[in-house]
Automatic annotation (TrEMBL):
It is found in: Chromosome, Centromere, Kinetochore. Pfam families: Mis12. Residues 108-146 form a coiled coil. Its main location: nucleus. It comes from Pampusana beccarii. This is Protein MIS12 homolog. Keywords: Cell cycle, Cell division, Centromere, Chromosome, Coiled coil, Kinetochore, Mitosis. One of its GO terms (biological process) is cell division. GO terms for cellular component: MIS12/MIND type complex; nucleus. The keyword Coiled coil applies. PANTHER family: PROTEIN MIS12 HOMOLOG. Belongs to the mis12 family.
Length: 210
């Protein structure tokens, strides 16, 4: 059988002509084998009606196999001729015929050099796309960081607003004055804390003496 893949025919039919012919060949071979089995069974039944016959079932099987081999040889010769006819007249797309999906190639023909240049351009565009995608990802990550920083700044602004409200409640409207006020209060708190610690130490010493 032929080994020509016939790729253009395969594109049109959806299968390769070689595959089609192979399936036809196998189907006919199976059909021939089944016919020989039927013929053999008929001969055996005829033989049963002839009790005096010297022909044995084994001889019939041998004869059937010989005849099957002969038929297969003849079939292969005939199928070779049929294959050529099918490939030339049925499963063949003439050289001057262009499939509808390939009309674009006829309208926009490309040489080998042009096709190579087009492939290189596609590769460059793909690299550019990957670079832009990576840059976009980096920008998105930076945006997330900026959002986190913005949230922290908003917290600080809220803290300053609260601080300003506290200062206003104590009669201090200027931020510098408010800061000085907080510094003084902080110093007073530290002094009070120090006094408390010293008193605690004295009390602990008294407890130890008692």
């Amino acid at each position: 059988m032929s080994v020509d893949p016939r790729a253009y025919e395969a594109q049109f039919f959806g299968f390769t002509p070689q595959t089609c012919l192979l399936r036809i060949y196998i189907a006919l071979q199976d059909y021939l084998f089944e016919i020989m089995l039927v013929v053999e069974s008929v001969i055996l039944k005829k033989l049963e009606r002839l009790p005096d016959s010297k022909i044995t079932p084994f001889q019939i099987r041998k004869s059937t196999e010989k005849f099957l081999l002969f038929m297969r040889q003849q079939f292969d010769k005939l199928f070779g001729t049929m294959e050529k006819v099918l490939l030339q007249l049925v499963l063949n797309i003439p050289k001057n015929v262009l499939l509808p999906e390939d009309k674009a190639h006829e309208q926009y023909p490309y040489s080998k050099e042009q096709f190579q240049a087009l492939q290189e351009e596609i590769e460059q565009l793909q690299q550019q796309y990957r670079a832009e995608a990576a840059a976009g990802q980096a920008l998105r990550a930076e945006l997330e960081e900026q959002k986190a920083v913005q949230a922290e700044l908003e917290k600080i602004l809220q803290w300053f607003d609260g601080l300003e409200n506290v200062c206003r409640e104590h009669g201090t409207g200027n931020f510098k004055e408010s800061f000085a006020f907080l510094t003084q209060n902080s110093k007073k708190l530290r002094d009070m804390l120090k006094d408390v610690e010293e008193k605690n130490k004295k009390i602990m010493k008294c407890d130890q003496l008692l």
